[in-house]
Design brief:
Blueprint lengths: L1 E8 L5 E7 L2 E6 L11 E7 L12 E7 L4 E6 L7 E3 L3 E5 L4 E7 L6 E6 L9 E2 L2 E4 L8 E8 L4 E11 L6 E4 L11 E6 L6 E6 L2 E5 L6 E6 L8 E9 L2 E9 L12 H6 L6 H20 L8
Parallel strand pairs: 8-14
Antiparallel strand pairs: 1-4, 2-3, 2-5, 5-6, 7-9, 9-12, 10-13, 11-12, 13-14, 15-16, 16-19, 17-18, 17-20, 20-21
Bound molecules: 2-acetamido-2-deoxy-beta-D-glucopyranose (NAG) (8 copies).
Protein name: Ig-like domain-containing protein
Keywords: Disulfide bond, Immunoglobulin domain, Membrane, Transmembrane, Transmembrane helix
GO molecular function: axon guidance receptor activity
Length: 303
């Protein structure tokens, strides 16, 4: 709402007031006959003004005319930033790319536009010609920004959200054991990703083992009794619409040896045995042992 007041008018019946946007007339008004008095009077014109985008750079003025001698006076109305617009409220920018958001506000005198990032101790951000400019978007530039339009009359703010989007972080793949697990042990393999949302998948030899949805920050494979055949390369993959990142782990499994295949046990006992029959039995036993040991591909020496 704008008010234009003209003081000390006489005679009021010859008075006329006109509102202009730039140099275009938008509203004309003449005082009501009932308000006429035969004396010097004041007159106020109230104008409900709803700015449109076309008006942004134009001044609103009020022109007072006294038709006695065609005496006119024009006054430019001063008003605070009333209507603030931004080119985008809610926007996302790809990592490393450029983003520009323009903020406009009407008002007279023309408002000064300042952009700042909310929640920062160093509040001013790069801003030229009403624009918020992000040249090389980084993750830390995501957040809320505020455009503050102010002039001598007042100030107005508008908040916008900037999202930075990009490929996921490199995921982590970990084995529950810090040492090489032994055959038969219970282990788990965890594939996890921090930060941005990504779909996690755990693979082995290009076969999907476990997959999570976008909400899950980790997927897990539990193996209650690990076997030698479970050894190998496992891949953890993090994927979103902007890219894929992978990590791998080479899992080796330690074989749990049969006690008889241990080479030093029968060899150490032999020389202490005196009897020939016992020795024969022992040799037989060793032969069997050797066979068994061979099948396990362990080295055994009988000499
Ligand atoms: C016009 O307004 C001025 C300033 O507000 C005031 O001093 C004056 O008395 C007013 N005149 C009339 C006729 O109301
Ligand atoms: C609007 O008014 C201000 C001061 O009142 C003036 O400096 C400026 O030039 C005017 N702008 C236009 C577009 O008329
Ligand atoms: C921004 O949000 C405001 C209200 O919060 C709304 O009036 C305006 O239309 C929005 N602008 C855009 C470009 O989405
Ligand atoms: C963008 O920012 C990244 C990280 O800060 C930097 O490594 C890269 O060189 C920058 N690129 C340009 C074109 O400035
Ligand atoms: C907007 O800017 C004006 C002028 O610099 C300042 O007085 C006002 O506190 C600012 N408002 C906000 C919310 O930052
Ligand atoms: C993600 O979690 C939210 C709430 O926590 C839920 O509403 C949404 O359905 C989940 N999305 C998926 C893909 O599971
Ligand atoms: C794996 O084991 C953990 C605890 O050891 C349990 O919380 C989790 O639910 C198990 N996951 C699956 C897929 O069985
Ligand atoms: C995995 O580790 C084992 C033992 O260190 C090694 O023999 C094997 O070549 C590795 N596999 C790959 C694909 O690197």
């Amino acid at each position: 709402m704008l008010i234009c007041t003209v003081l000390n008018i006489y005679p009021l019946e010859k008075f006329q007031i006109e509102w202009l946007r730039g140099d275009k007339s938008i509203h004309k008004e003449e005082p009501d006959v009932k308000t006429f008095h035969d004396q010097v009077q004041n007159y106020s014109s109230v104008f409900n003004y709803t700015p449109s985008v076309d008006d942004l750079e134009k001044n609103i003025s009020c022109k007072a005319t006294l038709n006695l001698n065609s005496q006119t006076r024009t006054t430019t109305a001063e008003y605070g930033p009333g209507h603030i617009t931004v080119s985008s409220n809610n926007t996302s920018v790809n990592l490393g790319e450029r983003l520009e958001i323009t903020c406009h506000a009407d008002g007279n005198p023309k408002p000064t536009i300042l952009w700042r990032k909310l929640g920062e101790t160093q509040p001013e951000v790069q801003s030229q010609n009403h624009k918020l400019i992000i040249n090389n978007a980084s993750w830390s530039q995501a957040g809320f920004y505020q455009c503050n339009a102010s002039n001598g009359v007042g100030s107005q703010q508008m908040k916008i959200k900037v999202m930075v989007v990009g490929p996921p972080n490199i995921p982590k793949i970990q084995l529950s054991h810090t040492e090489e697990p032994k055959e038969g042990e219970s282990v788990s393999i965890v594939c996890s990703s921090e930060g941005r949302s990504a779909e996690l998948t755990l693979y082995r030899r290009s076969q999907i083992i476990v997959t999570g949805d976008l909400n899950e920050s980790a997927v897990r494979l539990n193996i209650s009794s690990i076997q030698i055949t479970d050894a190998g390369i496992y891949t953890c993959e993090a994927k979103n619409s902007f890219g894929i990142k992978r990590s791998t782990i080479n899992i080796t499994v330690q074989a749990a040896h049969d006690i008889w295949s241990k080479p030093d046990l029968p060899v150490a006992i032999l020389p202490a045995v005196g009897s020939v029959s016992l020795l024969t039995a022992a040799v037989l036993l060793i032969r069997r042992c050797r066979k068994k040991a061979k099948s396990d591909s362990s080295n055994i020496s009988l000499d």
